[in-house]
Write a structure and sequence with these properties.
alpha+beta, 6-stranded antiparallel beta barrel, signal, globular, protease, Thrombin, subunit H
């Protein structure tokens, strides 16, 4: 009798786990090639490669954290674009949570004295964002901070591109974040960076690459077997333009086959496609 009860119980548990897995994946993947978000959801499909950045060398990078119990946990990256505003991915914040932003951080497991902790007073998700269609675009959101950031050597505003600007093939860019250092590994405590050159749209949208999954409102970067996709969803793609670091992308998705899959570059929301929307929100 006990064995029968245990069997039914384990079967029900297995069914529930299967249901949860399927419903989770349904929101994350499309038909081949399959995109997958890069926020920290413990599925292990994360970041490879890169190296630890010099502390506070990307001073506009923020850690987006959610509250669970009495503690906050890192889930996504983001970019400080005005003293009271942070840019991140829509899929990072399209659920109701208590959020906070940490500026000036390097090691997210230790308080180093340079951090600024800000609560989020309001979340603005692009009105065309559809969480059931990762490849539909519009994966961008703005967070209004409860107080303005104090700018110093560790916390700076990002430079954003002019509206409509598209970078050429192989433009030098770096992705930054606290993402996983290997598939199935743990989050990196220290901010990492990885070199991901731009892949132009004609190449990225061609057969054998991402095809029609990528839109002109996106930026592809990386895609070689040797290049990792270090970083979290919502974090910046920092690109060198005329000697200046400019944030041209918001980390959106990678291939479900793995972060550094050949000819499946990391895909970013193209910031320059959303400048007018951002200005309309931030004033």
């Amino acid at each position: 009798m006990d064995r029968c009860h245990e069997s039914r119980k384990s079967s029900a548990t297995a069914d529930m786990l299967r249901f949860l897995l399927l419903t989770s994946l349904a929101a994350l993947v499309l038909a081949e090639p399959q995109p997958r978000y890069l926020e920290d959801d413990n599925t292990g499909e994360r970041v490879v490669g890169g190296n630890v950045a010099n502390p506070n060398s990307w001073p506009w990078q923020i850690s987006l954290q959610y509250k669970s119990g009495s503690n906050f946990y890192h889930t996504c990256g983001g970019t400080l674009v005005k003293r009271g505003w942070v840019m991140t991915a829509a899929h990072c914040v399209d659920r109701s949570m208590t959020w906070r932003v940490v500026l000036g951080d390097h090691d997210i497991n230790n308080h180093e004295g340079k951090e600024q902790y800000m609560s989020v007073s309001r979340v603005y998700i692009h009105p065309n964002w559809n969480s059931n269609n990762v490849a539909g675009g519009y994966d961008i959101a703005l967070l209004r901070l409860s107080t303005d950031a104090v700018l110093n050597n560790y916390v700076q505003l990002a430079y954003l591109p002019p509206s409509g600007q598209v970078l050429p093939h192989n433009n030098n860019c770096y992705i930054t974040g606290w993402g996983r250092t290997q598939t199935g590994g743990s989050l990196s405590a220290q901010l990492k960076q990885a070199y991901l050159p731009v892949v132009d749209h004609n190449t990225c949208s061609s057969y054998g690459w991402w095809g029609s999954t990528v839109k002109t409102t996106m930026v592809c970067a990386g895609g070689g077997s040797e290049s990792g996709c270090q970083g979290d969803s919502g974090g910046p793609l920092n690109c060198s333009v005329n000697g200046q670091w400019v944030v041209h992308g918001v980390t959106s998705f990678v291939s479900s086959a793995g972060c550094n899959t050949y000819k499946r570059p990391t895909v970013f929301t193209r910031v320059s496609a959303y400048i007018s929307w951002m200005n309309s929100i931030m004033g």
